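Page 47, continued from p. 46.
Same chain as before, 85 aa.
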Amino acid sequence: MGDRMETNELVEGGTYDVRLNARNPKGEGIGRINDIVVFVRNAHTRIGKTHRVKITKLYRTFAYAELAEMMGGSKYFIGNGSQIV
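Result:
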């Protein structure tokens, strides 16, 4: 393995598209990118849709993210889930 880096690895600060399939009791959306479970803050009303997210904290088997924008549009979301047109 050494210096080899996979092209599909997640990086902190990177943006990715993720489909949110569930939510936890805290209101975080839960999705998966490759083998990494991603918890998306303030996504409780966006379950079942694909969103662009920014990875804020990355661990070995899971990551935390926040909404960056909704797929298929130019609408952006801020941390509390509010929409900015």
